[in-house]
Amino acid sequence: MMIMSKAKTDGKKLIANNKKARHDYFVEDSFEAGIVLHGTEVKSLRQGHCSIKEAFIDIDNGEAFIHQMHISPYEKGNIFNKDPLRTRKLLLHKSEISKMIGQINQKGYTLIPLKVYFSGSLVKVQIGLCKGKKLYDKRQDISKRDQLREAQRDFKVRNFG
């Protein structure tokens, strides 16, 4: 009998994470989408060559597309490599797309990719429905994080000091 660890059964391997998104935006809702890729792009993603820092998602004619997602060309791909910054189609249900359209039409909402990861053998993108933060919101978040860190440090010193 073979025992499998929890990490293996989950089947999710993180490729790229957009840390700046949570700093610049309030994430109201999130969706999981597949992405249409070519063979050499998948091989490059397996090596971890992906950046979604400047990426954004646009909905055109009822279809979702991701723009400015950089997937480095595969080293051994030769002529089969595609443009690293090409627009890629996202695979979503029509109901999810219509829900996104309804929420994007409200003032201040946008779609930002939060993570790119493998779910089994499939490449998935976690999309966040986000609202932009003002400068004072960012300052509040930083001060809350500093206060929490300070409180944890004090608690640690009192228990073990």
From TrEMBL:
PROSITE patterns the UniProt entry points to: SSRP
Chief localization: cytoplasm
Gene3D superfamilies, per the entry: 2.40.280.10
Pfam family, one: SmpB
InterPro entries: SmpB (IPR023620), SsrA-bd_prot (IPR000037), SsrA-bd_prot_CS (IPR020081)
Subcellular location: Cytoplasm
Source domain of life: Bacteria
Signal sequence coordinates: none
Keywords: Cytoplasm, RNA-binding
Record-stated family: Belongs to the SmpB family.
HAMAP family in UniProt: SmpB (MF_00023)
Function field: Required for rescue of stalled ribosomes mediated by trans-translation. Binds to transfer-messenger RNA (tmRNA), required for stable association of tmRNA with ribosomes. tmRNA and SmpB together mimic tRNA shape, replacing the anticodon stem-loop with SmpB. tmRNA is encoded by the ssrA gene; the 2 termini fold to resemble tRNA(Ala) and it encodes a 'tag peptide', a short internal open reading frame. During trans-translation Ala-aminoacylated tmRNA acts like a tRNA, entering the A-site of stalled ribosomes, displacing the stalled mRNA.
Name recorded for this polypeptide: SsrA-binding protein
Species assigned in the record: Anaerostipes amylophilus
Lineage per the UniProt record: Bacteria, Bacillati, Bacillota, Clostridia, Lachnospirales
Encoding gene per record: smpB
